[in-house]
Every structure is written in C-alpha cells, then in structure tokens.
Write a structure and sequence with these properties.
The structure holds 2 protein chains of 2 kinds.
Chain A lengths: L2 E3 L4 E5 L4 E3 L2 E3 L5 E7 L5 E7 L5 E3 L5 E5 L4 E6 L8 E8 L10 E2 L3 E6 L1
Parallel strand pairs in A: 2-12
Antiparallel strand pairs in A: 1-4, 3-9, 5-6, 5-10, 7-8, 8-9, 10-11, 10-12
Chain B lengths: L4 E3 L2 E4 L5 E6 L6 E8 L3 E9 L2 E5 L6 E5 L5 E5 L8 E8 L9 E2 L3 E5 L1
Parallel strand pairs in B: 2-11
Antiparallel strand pairs in B: 1-3, 3-8, 4-5, 4-9, 5-6, 7-8, 9-10, 9-11
The chains are: A mainly beta, B mainly beta.
C-alpha cells in the first residue's frame, strides 16, 4: 500500500527565514504528488503539484517543491516565510496507474509556526 | 467562480443517530470525493463519485455511504453514529476522476458526537 511520511510534526521558523518541509513516499511507481495547506477552521488549498517533466515545480504563495526520484522525496521550500504562512501543510500522493482509485493518500501533516 | 460549498459547517449529534452532509462542487466539476480528518488518523479517503456512481471506496464501515445527483452535488450519510465519528468531513471536487486531476476542497463540516 502506498504511504506518505512527513517526518516533522512541528517546525518553528523565524519570519523572513527560509523553509523546507520534508515529504517521503512509498509506492511501487512514481505517483502524482501534491502539497496542500490548511489554515485553522478551513479546508485544504492546493499549493502545487508534480505530474512529470521538470522536477522543480513552482506553486502559489512563493512555494516550490523538488521531486527526487532516487530519494522518493518531494520536499516543499520557500525562500522567505511570512507570518501568514503559519498553517498545517500536507503532502499527498495519488496513483498514476489505475486512475483515481483510493483517492489521495495524505501524510500526517507538518504544523508550521512562525516566530516574529 | 464559487468554490466547493459544504453544508452545514457544524453539526452536533448523539450516538445512534444518523446524519447527512451536503457538498456542492465547483461549477463544471463532475467528480466529488469525501475525506475524514481526525487528530489521530489524519486525512483518510472515504469515497469518490462520478456520474452518479461510486467509483472508489476507502476502508470505512458500511455505516458510511454517499450518493451523487445529476447536477454533481453529493451527499454523504453516516448511520448509527459512534463517538469515533467525530471529525471534520471534507469534500473535494475535480473536473473528472483520475490521479492527475487536482482536487479542490471545501471548508468542511465539523461533526461532533455526544
């Protein structure tokens, strides 16, 4: 069964500092990869996605992510965080073969805290 | 374009009751998926509907069911509610099924079981 691991439950970063959130997946073939963000009391917003091609993908709000096949990783980065980036971040995968079976599989999430 | 709309936003029920949650997808989106979010289990896939047919189902008991109407709106039903059903239920819509179709989420329905 496919799985997604986000090793960091909480991360604290100073405002203006750079950010990297880690994501590793376990799956027989490269799945479709996503990063979502969830603010308190709200649903999930799609930040970016990787389907194929360039392994560095750009998303909204200044986020980017790099797919590394050899490490089965899809880490999220931002050069300079803002206080409004404080939220829960989820990495997710979807099967590439067989269509949308089983929906999205999510990691447990990383809670990002921004220090002033 | 309006986003995914879920109603109601909050619900309080007691054990043994049943509940129906509603989801209106983004206009033009024909696929609707449901997820359960709890602190312990995280986000888990419930089921997916497309063209009024359930295409996939997650590992949940038969008490959890759903349906989709011809206008793509979807409802999910939970019968014989248990304390463990307390969760945020999220609906997501996409243009069509398939892992390469980004899913757009609503703000969820917070269900509390007393």
């Amino acid at each position: 069964a496919q799985s997604v691991t986000q090793p960091d439950i909480h991360i604290t970063v100073s405002e203006g500092a750079s950010l990297e959130l880690r994501c590793n997946y376990s799956y027989g073939a490269t799945p479709y990869l996503f990063w979502y963000v969830q603010s308190p009391g709200q649903g999930l917003q799609l930040l970016l996605k990787y389907f194929s091609g360039d392994t560095l993908v750009q998303g909204i709000k200044g986020f980017e992510a790099e797919f590394k096949r050899s490490q089965s990783s899809f880490n999220l980065r931002k050069p300079s965080v803002h206080w409004s980036d404080a939220a829960e971040y989820f990495c997710a995968v979807a099967k590439r073969v067989g269509g949308g079976a089983d929906g999205l599989t999510f990691g447990k999430g990383t809670h990002l805290i921004i220090q002033p | 374009k309006a986003g995914v709309t879920q109603t109601p936003r909050y619900l309080i029920k007691t054990r043994g009751q049943q509940v129906t949650l509603s989801c209106s997808p983004i206009s033009g989106h024909r696929s609707v998926s449901w997820y359960q979010q709890t602190p312990g289990q995280g986000l888990q896939f419930l089921f997916e509907y497309f063209s009024e047919t359930q295409r996939n189902k997650g590992n949940f008991p038969g008490r959890f069911s759903g349906r989709q109407f011809s206008n793509s709106r979807s409802e999910m039903n939970v019968s014989t509610l248990e304390l463990g059903d307390s969760a945020l239920y999220l609906c997501a819509s996409s243009l069509s099924p398939g892992g390469n179709q980004p899913q757009h989420f609503g703000d969820g329905t917070r269900l509390s079981i007393l």
